[in-house]
Amino acid sequence: MCRLSPLLAALAALLALAVVAQAVLHAQTGPLPLAGVFEVHLLAVATVAALLALAGALGGGRARAWTRLVSLAVLVLAVVSLGDELWSPTPDAATGPTSELRVLTWNLDAGGRAATATVAGIAALDADLVALQELTPEAATAIEADPILRARYPYRILEPDQGVDGMGLLAKRPLVTRGSERAPLILRAGLLLDGGRMIEVLDVHPYPPDMGTVARLPVSLDTRRRDEDLGVIGGRVVAMDDPAWALVVGDLNTAPGEPSLAALADGLTDAHAAAGTGPGFTWRPSALEGLGVGVLRIDHVLTGTWLTPVAATTDCSIAGDHCRLMVTLRIAAPPAP
What we know:
Strand content: 25-35%
Oligomer: single chain
Order of helices and strands: HEHHHEHEHHEEEEEEEHEHEHEEE
Number of helices: 10
């Protein structure tokens, strides 16, 4: 192990440098954007390599000193970068009148499962607001026909599509239709709260970036179109009368390590980073569906100031490329004018 320590430290440093380079350069094409997509994975491997290098470099010697220094630097970077992503402190106690809202978002895999299974997956989690992406006509018909969902969600906006463009919202509270867009896919609605307050909901689904592969392994990425879509979504938030009541939810096809997500979330709160524990992965390739876990976190709930995430959990037990993401929000009453 002692002889391998410098190599392990070099590997850890190389992986960490790739993550840092993407964070600084914000590359949109080529292999470097993959460092943002797989930031958690790269830093996890770098952490293991750094710990092994550190264990093997105990003792004196200049080479061992450099190995220890590099390993410690990588460990510090991993802790700083992944701290909020993997662990969240207990939310502060509420200081005034509050209520809670449970939000479920689920990409339905464009008919990749039976409509009855989709209905069962929605009904199994008692959310107050359900945001759906890749809603097909078959799934929409099954949702409308199901007596449990009809009773639970009297307010519905369903815009199905035979491909991947279908969108939908189900709610226990009244929904006010704000319209929809196709480029990028945005379904807008107001969710009416007690006292006449309104949460401005954006159910979104920008298309994924173009990926280059070799032997089915990703080797390059082109995020330009998707990043433009995220910019449009961010513009819709800025244009709201009061972005403090914004709720952006859906399949963003963007991992938390990508700079474009940080730009969109500027001024908003990432529910998983604020209230989730663990990586919160919500997507997996079809070959890994049977494992019951995800490998990337690309489904998100982003909130304005008056919506505080207090819990965020994923359920990957149902076959499909996307897991269900459930977030509990605490709704604070704004101070009187």
